[in-house]
Amino acid sequence: xxRNLGRQCFSSVRIQRPQQYYLGSLVRFQHAAATxxxxxxxxxxxxxxxxxVLCADCQAIQPVTPNVNYYELLLDGKQHSFxxxxxxxxxxxxxxxxxxxxxxxxxxxxxxxxxxxxQSSTLNKAYHTLKDPLARAKYxxxxxxxxxxxxDSLEDPALLMEVMEIREELDEATTDDQVAQVKETNDExxxxxxxRLSEAFSSNDLDAAKKFMIQLQYWESxxxxxxxxxx
Length: 231
Hints:
Layout lengths: L1 H8 L13 H14 L33 H6 L10 H15 L9 H22 L1 H11 L13 H16 L3 H27 L3 H23 L3
Helix pairs in contact: 4-5, 5-6, 6-9, 7-8, 7-9, 8-9
């Protein structure tokens, strides 16, 4: 019953392949594929990296690479892990966004303006994916061939009961102080789960990463409900 209730209340993911995937092997495969099909600048013909925003030679805005890797785009491909440096991520995002903003190409050719719009949109999506622990966890699993679905739910009855109790406390809250107390409890659970996700990805334990990502979705759902709360 609790399992069915969890499925009705929250979204989750399905792992549809065996869990023994190794990120290092995947990254090496992607690098080999990228090298074999290295693009060239549309304006000057210089060879480009796959996650290039501007040509290093002529500074022309480049088209978005299909299926661009967000880590390569915003973290120079040096870090394919769950843990990221928020300040470094934001700095790189703002730097590239300033260079690719469509307003900077209002007097440029139609091609350049369209490229800028696509690059700006992609940068926004990449940044919001990597800065958010839940979105980042989903993205990392997808990089390793894990398909995200909506049919898995929290398997631990005790933990599901705890989630439902916290949600019930929020539903019954009538004052800001009561909501603040619920928020404090939920934030602790959220941060604990983020830490466990980090450990799971660090040890390449995708079964554990899947489990903790599902848990994080529950705490994230309560976080959103807290933000929307009104007396």
